[in-house]
What does this fold into?
Amino acid sequence: MICPGEVFADTKEFDTNIRQLLPYYDEMLSAIALCVGSDSKRILELGCGTGELTLQVLQQCPNAEVVAIDYSPRMINVIQEKLEFHGYQEKVQLRQLDFGAWANEQTGHDIGGNFDAVISSLAIHHLSDEMKGKLFQKIARSLKPNGRFWNADPLLPEFPELSDIYEQSRQRWAQQQGLDLDQVRNKIGQSETYGYSSHDQLATLDTHFQLLQQAGFSKTAVIWKYYNLGVFGGLR
It folds into this structure.
């Protein structure tokens, strides 16, 4: 059994496998890094995983320090080794905790505030819509005025007829890369609920924007999209 977000049974194969499962994975992460703001000094990353987004953001924001959290000890081990290899260990504070518990203000889950930016990739879609709303409210309270929040996640199709089109787009992309998508999907492990996170609980872009606006984000945008994969967020 693995936690939601770990995706694959072997964590050390995550970086290779996710690039075969999701089209334009690196481009998606770089969209977040570019929009964080190169002058950012204090950044919070929710669900840091193996640290691929962390590295891109540190390269984009040379003066930044990152608080990176994830509930998976296996992911924390991988990102720790990666940060040490790249010489970034002094710039990142790693915390093993559940950001759902952080959103609910649970004791022992305080990670401070006053962030220039909050970022996340492939993590928040494991929360229910109610918990997404609570998380967005917590993020808004943790940002400086005009602070930014950007999230990369799979999305629920805006209407059912798009489901087949989105699947066809994924299959077509895999064929162009010379990949057998079914073979890649067979590497996905069986996950179990952990804390507030469970199996995919996707929402449409409209739902995300409604929740963001209710949380106090006055400006919202989609900064990157490929069929049902999107990078979106806004300014507090």
User: Anything to note?
Assistant: The longest helix spans residues 162-176. The two ends are 38 Å apart (CA to CA). The longest strand covers residues 143-154. The CA atoms of residues 22 and 142 lie 30 Å apart.
